[in-house]
Amino acid sequence: QVQLVESGGGSVLAGGSLRLSCDASGYTGSTYCMAWFRQAPGKEREGVAAISYKGDLSYYADSVKGRFTISRDNAKSLLYLQMNSLKPDDTAMYYCATRQWYTPHTWHGFGDWGQGTQVTVSS
Fold first, then answer.
1. Cβ(70)–Cβ(80) below 8 Å
2. What does the pLDDT look like over 78-122, one tens digit per residue?
3. pLDDT digits 0-9 by tens, 22-47
4. Measured between alpha carbons, how far is 60 from 82 in angstroms, rounded to an integer?
5. Distance CA 99, CA 35 (A)
6. Alpha carbon separation from 50 to 14, 36, 75, 97, 103 (Å, rounded)
7. Beta strands across the sheet bearing 92-99
8. DSSP string for the chain
9. Residue 13, Cβ neighbours under 10 Å: how many?
């Protein structure tokens, strides 16, 4: 099946903003729950934010609460991650993924990863 396609990454200074997008228009799997993950060099992949199908429920990693906002537009098959007040620690490859159920504050069970989009934050 067609993968999810992330975009919107780039290089910014600390304190800056970026908006990531994940295009699921060609994806044939379930998009009931969608999430953003990230992986920095030498570190394990970690969950950043997740959202329910209707977009009315979401949860975040403690490290990004109050700075990042996840949203989705099902009509356009798009998932977004608005990232504000970026820090050098946010530097990572960012991936979107899907899961067939929504359980708050859990990161297991996600799959069908895209190729990722690189975010680099310099001080």
1. yes
2. 999 999 999 999 999 999 999 999 999 999 999 888 899 999 999
3. 999 988 888 899 999 999 999 999 99
4. 12
5. 8
6. 24, 6, 18, 9, 9
7. 10-13, 117-122, 92-99, 33-39, 46-51, 58-60
8. -PPPEEE--EEEETT--EEEEEE-TT--S--SEEEEEEE-TTS--EEEEEE-TTSS-EEE-TTTTTTEEEEEETTTTEEEEEE-S--GGG-EEEEEEEESS--TT--TT-B-----EEEEEE-
9. 10
What residue has token string 């209707």?
A: 54
- Residue 70's CB is within 10 A of a number of other CB atoms, namely 22
d(CA 72, CA 54): 8
What span, in angstroms and rounded, lies between the C-alpha atoms of 76 and 13?
30
* The amino acid at 77: S
Task: Retrieve residue 101's tokens.
Answer: 């159920």
* Token pair of 83 as six digits: 């990232």
83 contacts 71 by C-beta, under 8 angstroms = no
